[in-house]
Every structure is written in C-alpha cells, then in structure tokens.
Design a protein that fits this description.
The protein has about 70 residues and is of the alpha+beta class. It is about 25% helix and about 30% strand. It has one domain.
Length: about 70
Amino acid sequence: MITKQYNPSQLEVEIAKAIKELSSQIESKLSDCKIIEIEDKIMADNPLVKIKLVDKDNDPHEVVLKIIQKPDQF
C-alpha cells in the first residue's frame, strides 16, 4: 500500500480506532487500574488517544498515545 496522505493517514486513523475499541481488553491486562474514559482526536494531523485511568488507591492517571506513521521508505 502506497500512502499518499499522511495527515492523518488511513493507517494512523485505523490504529487509533482499534486502540479505542480494544479498551476493555487493554484494561484486563493492567494491574490495579481501571479505564474511566478514552478521549480521541482521531482526525488530527497525528491522531491522539488519551486514556484516563484510576488506580486501586483511586488516584487518577492519564496516558497519551500519539500515532505517527513514518513516511514510506523505499
């Protein structure tokens, strides 16, 4: 697949959507944390997924994933 558009690319968008859809499975892999919200900026230049969590002590945490596809290298 030759990528003609990178901002955002189709692959970046699909990966961001997949991460959001898999949130319950991701949560099951985390020890003592619960996902309370997922924010996304899927159509941004580089899609962003923010995962808001609380731990067993009820302390809030946030993990930010920025999806960046490198230009094709031939």
